[in-house]
Amino acid sequence: MSLLRVCSLAKCVGRRSLADVRRCFAERCQLCVSARSGAAGRISETPLYRQRRNVSTVFPKSEDTKKRVHEQSQLLDVLEARIQQLQSDVVLDVQHAKVQFIKAPSFGGGVSSGRTPKGSSKDKSDVSKSGQTFTKGASKSQPSRWMEKLSQEKKNKLKKQQHLEQKMQRIVKEKPLGQSKGSKSSLMATGTSHKIISSAAKKSKADMKLSDKIYAAASSTTAVAAATSAKAAVAPKAPKPKQKDSKSKVSDKKAAKRATTEGKVKVKDEDLANVAELKQRLNQQGQDWTSLSTTDSPQDGSKGSLCGDIQLSIRSYLEACVFVGDIERSQSFLLSQHRVMSRRKYLTTDVYNIMMRVWAKRGMLNQIGRIFILLEEAGLKPNAGSYSAALECMGRQQNCSPKVIWRCLNKMREDGLSVDDLFSQCVFRQDERDMLLRAIHTVKPDYEPSLSLNASQCSSPLVQDFYTKREHHTYPKLDFTQEELQERFKRQLSVEEACTVTIDSVEGLKPITENMAKMREMLAEQRAQWHKVLLQALRESKMILAKTNTKAYKLDLYPYLCLLEDKEYVDIMIQSVTNMPPSGESLKILARDVGNRIYTKYCVRQKHQNQTVEKLGSIYDAYTDLLAKDTKVYNVLPREQWCKLEMEQHSGPTLQGGETTWPYILILELGTFIVDIMVKNLKINSDILNPAYDRKLIPILYHMYTFRSTRQVGFIKPHPILTQMQQEAMETKLTFDSSVMPMLCPPVPWTSVKFGAYLLTPAKLMRTLDGAMQHEELLEKCENLHPVFDSLNQLGNCAWRINKPILDIIISIFNERGSEKLDIPPPLSEAPKIPHFHPQDPTYTASEKAHMKREVINAKKKCSEMHSLRMDALYKLSIAHRMRDELFWFPHNMDFRGRTYPCPPYFNHLGSDVTRAMLVFAEGKPLGPKGLDWLKIHLVNLTGLKKRSSLQGRLEYGNSIIEDILDSADDPLNGKKWWMEADEPWQALACCMEIANAVRSPDPTKFISHFPVHQDGSCNGLQHYAALGRDVIGATSVNLVPCEVPQDVYSSVAQQVEELRARDAAKGLKIAQVLEGFISRKVVKQTVMTVVYGVTRYGGRLQIEKRLKEIDEFPKNHVWDASHYLVRLVFNGLKEMFTGTREIQDWLTESARLISKSGHTVEWVTPLGLPIIQPYHRTRNQVLKSTMQHINLQISHDAKERPDTVKQKNAFPPNFIHSLDSTHMMLTSLHCYSAGLTFVSVHDCFWTHALTVDTMNKICREQFVALHSQPILDELSNFLLHKYCSTIQTEARTKKYQEYRRLLLLLGKVPQTGDFDLQQVKESTYFFC
Question: Which of the residues 1085, 1209, 1283, 1309 is marked catalytic?
Answer without folding.
Answer: 1085
